[in-house]
Design brief:
single chain; binds zinc ion; about 70% helix; mainly alpha; 3 domains
């Protein structure tokens, strides 16, 4: 679930920064202490960004990525996966690396502290970093949304293609003037236009253009009509009527050599129209 950052989250962030300013001091011990508000600020920024914009499992994230640097690398990889040439990445990478080094140092020594000007540099870039990250997060979310839509379009394009093939098979099977009732005949006669439209949909996807709602409606309508035509075809066949010319469908059986006085060595059968080439089944067998 995506949780939007609340105003409280940002109030809390600003408090961290005020703490930094309030504690800013030349004294080594103070300087070591005030690294932590900054560190927490950056941690918090990353956490909010992950919740709001990056599709990283939050539980996974909290368990596996405990420190600032690891969390940053995770987000950095996501940003680079969609915009590898983003110029600010290396800059902020430098800032966060510096913060990581300083926070690591302060844990171990009591007589050294990070230089104040470097800490100010981190401080001065905290808010720009936050803004930049939100921007990148939005770009990332947008990209993911579009690529998901693109997957759907590709699926619909493949589907249109299949529909197009099915319509072609129906046409070659049923000819120009199948004995359908008025409505189904109208659907059948519209197959040529439908094929043009389906080909256009496919072309649109190939040219990377997004499909519109009207395209999707068209595909569904086309499918429904195709099913009605098929149902009509089988309803005629069930009454032994040819769906191509309206003639009778009959089973026939004959032997070869035929005609001849010799005993037959092969049996042939055909279930189909007596008037045209429409057939349901045919074959032959040696006897
Ligand atoms: Zn026929």
């Amino acid at each position: 679930m995506i949780k939007m950052a609340s105003k409280n989250d940002y109030d809390e962030l600003n408090q961290y920064l005020k703490n930094y300013l309030g504690g800013r001091s030349e004294k080594i011990a103070d300087r070591n202490t005030i690294i932590w508000p900054l560190y927490k600020y950056f941690m918090k920024i990353l956490q909010i960004a992950i919740l709001d914009y990056f599709d990283i499992e939050i539980e996974d994230f909290i368990k596996k990525y405990k420190n600032l640097f690891d969390r940053w690398i995770l987000i950095k990889n996501s940003i680079e996966s969609i915009s590898p040439k983003e110029e600010q990445i290396e800059f902020f990478h430098g800032i966060i690396s510096m913060l990581r080094d300083f926070s690591g140092d302060s844990r171990h020594t009591s007589n050294t502290a990070p230089p104040l000007n470097r800490m100010d540099e981190i401080y001065n870039n905290a808010i720009p970093f936050n803004k930049w990250l939100i921007e990148q997060g939005k770009i990332y979310t947008d990209f993911k949304k579009k690529s998901k839509l693109r997957d759907i379009d590709l699926y619909l394009s493949r589907y249109s293609n299949r529909l197009l093939n099915d319509l072609e098979i129906l046409q070659s099977e049923l000819g120009d003037d199948p004995p359908f009732n008025f409505l189904i005949k109208e659907y059948y006669d519209q197959i040529p236009q439908a094929k043009v439209q389906l080909a256009k949909i496919r072309e649109k996807v190939m040219k990377m253009n997004p499909l519109e709602e009207s395209d999707v409606i068209f595909i569904i309508e086309c499918l429904e009509r195709k099913e009605k035509i098929e149902a009509e075809k089988w309803a005629l066949v069930a009454r032994n009527r040819c769906p191509k010319c309206g003639g009778r469908i009959e089973p026939r059986k004959w032997y070869s050599p035929h005609p001849s006085d010799e005993p037959p060595d092969e049996v042939h059968w055909r279930i189909g129209c007596v008037k045209c080439d429409f057939e349901l089944d045919s074959g032959s067998e040696n006897i």
